[in-house]
Amino acid sequence: MYFEQQNNLSVRIAQWIANQIIIGHYPPFSRVREEAISKELDVSRGPIREALLILQRQRLVDILPRRGAVVTPMSEQQIVELYDVVCTLYTLLAVNLAQNWKEGQLNTFESLLKLMEIDCSAKDHQRYFENTVEFMKLGYLIAKNDLLENLLEDLIPSVNRVQYLAVKSRRYDIEKNYQSFKNILNHIKNRDISALKEAILSHNEQEKAFAIKALQSQRQSVT
Q: Which of 102, 104, 197, 216 lies at a 20 to 30 A Cα distance from 162?
């Protein structure tokens, strides 16, 4: 596999490895071997080491003495802590949108929401999952808060990991999830900050429950 040499190579490698972790190709406690990745992506080991440092910051790997990079495990407590922090950041992002959007800026959100509705009707969990990620990232364009974007970008891979587990195990009610996104967008359009905060909190608790059930289900299937 030839991995095209471009700017931000270490970032792109980190994204590739993150995806392998998210989809379970690299399970918890497994080693992420630099040599194997170097051969598969046809890149030198220098940018791979830089990529692993990015993944360590994103809490997807731990870099251990004499063992190298090891995929971090997941626990119920970690999921609770992750979603509680992300909920606060999502709320800041959504409130920023509600207060600052201008005419026409929410059209892309509306279009993506229609695609999510189609995915929901078709029960296409994977495509729906991908569109929810894009929905959140659209907010960056309007919020224009670099610090908030950077904080979310460091946490989103971990969120994607637990969400993918929920999607894969079908412990994910996409109809209920879609309605949450629809309500959130309506509150943003109406600039109803109080209702928006309540909707995001409810959505976060819903997502947290899905993720914990999926993790418990995975453990039961292993045992």
A: 197
Q: How confident is the model at residue 142 (pLDDT cuts 50, 70, 90)?
A: confident
What is the rounded distance in angstroms from the CA atom of residue 20 to the CA atom of residue 89? 26
155-175 pLDDT per residue, tens: 989 988 988 887 776 656 788
In this structure, the strands spanning 61-64 and 31-32 are unpaired
Q: Indicate yes or no: pTM above 0.85.
A: no
Q: Which domains are present in the chain? A: 9-71 (1.10.10.10), 76-222 (1.20.120.530)
| Six token digits for residue 106 | 């929410």
User: Smallest Cα–Cα separation from 200: which of 219, 221, 57, 208?
Assistant: 208
Handedness of CA 209, 212, 214, 216 (dihedral sign): negative
Q: Tell me the C-alpha distance between 223 and 221, whole Å.
A: 6
- Phi-psi map region of 46: left, alpha, beta (phi>0 left; psi -120 to 50 alpha): alpha
Inter-residue contact 135 to 181 (CB < 8 Å): yes
